[in-house]
User: Fold these one by one.
Assistant:
Number 1:
Amino acid sequence: MRCPICHHSCRIQRTWIITDHLRELTRCCKNSECGHVFATHEEYIRTIVEPVAAPVVQPNNPSSIAL
Ligand SMILES: [Zn+2]
């Protein structure tokens, strides 16, 4: 993501895990003349390609793993 103020690239300063599918990121603009620090969300939205060999968690028992 680019800085919404000056459109330079940014670096991620901190990450907080909110849920298994949502993180809050603190980003810092790399432009030394800007220095904007801001927060964004990173969220899982859907699967594009199903995993080939990953274990499947049963929906009625999240702690169990089917092999
Ligand atoms: Zn900036």
Number 2:
Amino acid sequence: MQSKDSEKSISISCPACGLLCDDLRLVSASPIKLNISCTKGVAFFEYTLNAAPRQPSVAGQATDLNTAIQAAVTILKQSQTPLFAGLGTEVQGMRAILQLANKTGATLDHMHSEGMIRNTLALQNSGWQNTTLTEVKNRATVIFAIGTDIVSSHPRFFEKLVWNSESLFNKPRPEVIYLAVDEKNTTAGISPEGKKPWIIPAEIKQLPEIMNVLNALLNQKNPLHKKTPDALICGIAVATLLALLEKLKSAQYVVVVWAAGNFKFSQAELTVQSIIQLIAKINETTRIAGLPLNAGDGDVSVNNTSTWLSGYPIRSRHVKLGDANPENINQNQQLEYDPHHFSCQQQLKNSDALIWISTFNAQLPPNCSLPTIVIGHPSLQFERMPDVFIPVGVPGIDHAGTQFRMDNVVALPLKKLRQSDLPSLSQVIQLLTDELP
Ligand code: SF4
């Protein structure tokens, strides 16, 4: 029999991380009461639902939406090289942004693209063999987490996908292996029966060497042939690395998890590539697949929408016809792609106006002297007010939307949970687009 609470509750998807859990029920909005205890999810809804009402502003003075739109249009009309960055939005918001980018010749970069680009570069170079959340839930027998405890960014990963009691196939509880993860953050990897994970201590910055040695040992091109099994590589015994390879090769279905955003060292895309190579080689004899974690703020949705509508992922520039550099332009003569040169940090030096977008969270724009338009979360608090600020609704709370899960294959609807006076990002971008020639 249903409880009174569950009769009144609304079923929702949570956009606070890439798992996009769709088993949530909002029991009450004030005070916020969800049927789950995920701290990150609860904080996301609480933060927005408790946000004070906010008005647009121009030069720090509160104003109405129309005046703010006109001020933003003036900045865009004077700009030759606008930068649209942050891009914290869902599919609908990104569709609108692409239209405005086409009209203004804007360069696009997402706030979390530094990590995303590491994966994209490796993917472009060699392809990859990745899996889905459903496959993890139904088939994984080993979870191999490299440089991430997983739950800091994706809190219910183990609860929903690893320690789940239901799966389509009869399989043992997955074993969990952590490499280069702080031991105090590994308790989520202890099974419900109390089985502890295998922890291989190392520093994240040592991963390039460790992954290279693992690949060398796997391919029997042993650069360590003169060393004994007791010899240490980055503090790890060679015998431990060999035992790890044996475990991966003998398992029924290994899922290798990494968060490229954590790889904060030079040429980190090569480490992602080493992980991909390890997966490809072991896949010749058993089943193993990758699962890159996303960073959030709509990064997967923005990248996918950009790719299917323009042919290129994020860090692209929409070139106004007539301005194109014939050496860099793609076939449709309207787009350039450069994952290094078109980063927000680089383009702040080359652009003459910035639109910063952050609708899911109150992420602040970078410090810069460019004329700045901020379109974003109503809770944004600035040290220095931007030239124009337009607060907009939060997808999944103030208006409906669509969001991609971190595994790229499933898009889920986000629901409108309350009446809001705030426009959506797509509506604001459409108003700007309509006002421009
Ligand atoms: S795990 Fe992620 S998607 Fe699921 S409830 Fe927590 S924050 Fe939301």
